Amino acid sequence: MRELTLMNRAGAGTASDEAWMDGVHDPESTVVDLDELELRGNPAADANRRGATDRFRQYGLCWFADAISPDLLGRCQGAADERLHRCLSEVRRRNLPAIERGTPNGYAEIVARAPGRYDMLYGTDAAPFTDPKIRAQARWMPLVDELLGGEASLLFCGLLMTLGGAAEQPWHTDGEHLFGPEVPTLPPHCLNVFIPLVDITPEIGGTEFCPGSHHLTRGIPEIYEQSTEHVERIGWRGRPLPLEIPAGSALLFDYRLLHRGLANRTDKVRPILYLTFCRPWFRDVHNFPARRLFTANAG
Ligand SMILES: O=C(O)CCC(=O)C(=O)O
């Protein structure tokens, strides 16, 4: 999502963190399917959390269905469409140039990550996105806390709005490793939770991942920039995994995992609600610009 990520302080690893480095074989040739990455049963239960943690360590992602209720899902769908409409209408109302790709061309409320792909923070600090079932009481929180050392901080809550007809996006990670190639893969310091607000089908185009690639993106310059060359550059020869999961599921993935948005071959917007969590000392400082689309009172 972001184009450049910096951290301001590295934390000390714990004994359980060190266990993260064991048991990872051949990340270059990882092949896994969505069934194997699905967490069944209550994600807060100890055994399920441990199973998910293992899969997350090895593959860089895991998911579970029914993360939010149909009622909340419906309210989020309507609100996401309305927020996008308000942002794009404001650009037109003020006769501003269309929002071009890249952070410097965007606004504090909305940035285009690729043509037709908007990353929008606008209005996610209000209902329905502040519902406790999306925040403190969310079904993913126990797992997120465990993956981030027991003390996860919310960095962003936003919406990825991909317009019908948008082309496939180049590969990228959302952030870098904290250290270079001299340090083995450390436990995650930052991760995303994606909650698709519509069913993700091959036509509407999900996110596609290179499972295990977070073990190979360490020390690769500008891996967070979008490029079609990244898979070859890191030597990953596994099977790319397109996300095809039902609306209202939650997918957790490591910030350092290679991924891209696939083409939306429908005429409908594809909305994904996302929450980015990190260890409390981490900051992602190059994500949305300071200039505002709405004045303080108008938003
Ligand atoms: O839309 C997606 O599926 C992924 C988007 C993404 O990775 C990004 O905008 O950086």
What does this 3D model show about the protein?
With 299 residues, the chain is of the alpha+beta class. It has a single domain, classed as Sandwich (Jelly Rolls), CATH 2.60.120. Helix content is 19%, strand content 17%. The chain is built from 6 helices and 10 strands, in the order αααβαββαβββαββββ. A hairpin with a 2-residue loop joins strand 2 and strand 3. Helix 3 (46-59) packs across helix 5. The two termini are 23 Å apart. Residues 2-23 have low confidence and may be disordered. The structure holds 2-oxoglutaric acid. 2-oxoglutaric acid binds at residues 1, 113, 117, 119, 160, 162, 207, 259, 261.
Brief summary:
The chain has a single domain, classed as Jelly Rolls (Sandwich), CATH 2.60.120.620. It is an alpha+beta fold and 299 residues long. 19% of the residues lie in helices and 17% in strands.
What is the secondary structure topology, with strand pairs?
Elements: H1 15-18, H2 34-37, H3 46-59, E1 61-64, H4 70-93, E2 110-114, E3 117-120, H5 141-147, E4 153-162, E5 190-196, E6 207-209, H6 230-234, E7 241-242, E8 250-254, E9 259-261, E10 270-278
Antiparallel strand pairs: 1-8, 2-3, 3-4, 4-10, 5-8, 5-10, 6-7, 6-9
The structure holds 2-oxoglutaric acid.
2-oxoglutaric acid (AKG) binds next to strand 3, strand 4 and strand 9.
